[in-house]
Amino acid sequence: MNPETHGTQWAIPCWFMRGGTSKGPFFRGSDLPAAVEARDSVLLAAMGSPDPRQIDGLGGAHPLTSKAGIVAPSTRTGVDLEFLFAQIQPSSTRVDTTANCGNMLAAVVPFAIESGLLEPGGDTATARVITLNTGLVAEITVPTPSDGQKRFVEYSGDARIDGVPGTAAPVEINFLDTAGSVCNSLLPTGNLRDTVDIRGLGAVDVTCIDNGMPLVIIQAAALERTGYESVDDLNRDTELKTKLEDLRISCGKLMGLGDVTDRNYPKMTLVSPPKNRGAINTRSFIPHVCHQSIGVLAAVTAATAAVLKGTVAHDIATFPDGTEPEVSVEHPSGEFTVKLGLDPANPAHVMKSALLRTARLVMAGNVMVPLSLRTPTDTATPPSSASQEHTQ
């Protein structure tokens, strides 16, 4: 680990990256403590948690800006990089490494090149990345032109994603097999839809699905909402959020996840008919705050539910036929297009999911944490060794 100190503070190399519609600090696995508890203490201190404003750290006082990534080279056959995603909540001491984040995943290859973990060899760099959180594997391609002396990550370009201002260079992500990333299968209850009781409403139909992110999908109309409400209105809707949390806890048990009270999943996704020529409209809760757009893997999972005949999403979705449909998922900030590869012999089997994101290096330097967090017995190891309890 980096031994540099500044008085009573420890300087840890850090690259602050935007990935998709999220952002946060990225670290090389070798720069952090090996022990999980010590590592998590460093992450909490770096982000400034627990504190609603995260005023003493890098966090942005919102779940979307309270995330971190840890990356290391991989020794696994056919895998180049290992990525451990960490979700930190502003007001909590919990560091959750049990679920993925497809937005932060978009920054992994740019970070690896910036930090010296990966050397590009051509005008584009493609790396196969495994997310240690769930074992999901993705091939990620970024542009790496040359300035005549060396290759660098190109961040400028014409790619545009809703939820991020301006344009940037494309980051192409091809998920190879995302079904059952956290749960035991694509449809963890074994059903395309289930009926669950909600206090004050009675029985409602939901679809419990996991194609990269465990979701509970419910039609907004079933909750006496339109599904077109603004993010601010939904975040102020305490009655709705109480019902969603009751539903989330019930469905977590149905999905084999146990008590999810303190977990960041399953995410709750309200769906309604599309308004802007998309396939389906969404409002995604992560899980207690309405997302300004929608997470990458939540979009993949919602798109998958839309194409599966018999789900609550399929009932109101509009999309093209075929074994490789492009599904436009509408969200509060615009839309997110997911290209799905379906098995012709079994349309319920999703073989791949492809999408486009963007990323940018915002800052490179050191983040300062209390020197007391560095223990002399720590020996640096990549996250694959330090965090095997999170892999599946």
How many whole angstroms does the radius of gyration measure?
Answer: 20 Å
Distance between the termini: 27 Å
Number of helices: 7
CATH H-level superfamily title of the largest domain: Diaminopimelate Epimerase, Chain A, domain 1
Shape: globular
- Estimate percent helicity: 10-25%
CATH fold name of the largest domain: Diaminopimelate Epimerase, Chain A, domain 1
Question: Which architecture of the largest domain per CATH?
Answer: Roll
Question: Could you list some keywords that capture this structure?
Answer:
2 domains, Diaminopimelate Epimerase, Chain A, domain 1, 18-stranded mixed beta sheet, 18 strands, about 400 residues, alpha+beta
Structural write-up:
- There is one protein chain.
- It is globular and about 60 Å long.
- The chain has 392 residues and is an alpha+beta fold.
- The chain has helices at 36-47, 102-105, 108-114, 231-236, 238-254, 296-307, 383-386, and strands at residues 5-6, 9-19, 22-28, 67-73, 81-88, 95-96, 124-131, 137-143, 171-175, 194-198, 202-210, 214-219, 267-272, 280-285, 326-331, 334-343, 346-357, 359-370.
- The chain has an 18-stranded mixed β-sheet that branches.
- Helix content is 16%, strand content 33%.
- The two termini are 27 Å apart.
Could you write a compact summary of the structure shown?
The chain has 392 residues and is of the alpha+beta class. It has helices at 36-47, 102-105, 108-114, 231-236, 238-254, 296-307, 383-386; strands at 5-6, 9-19, 22-28, 67-73, 81-88, 95-96, 124-131, 137-143, 171-175, 194-198, 202-210, 214-219, 267-272, 280-285, 326-331, 334-343, 346-357, 359-370.
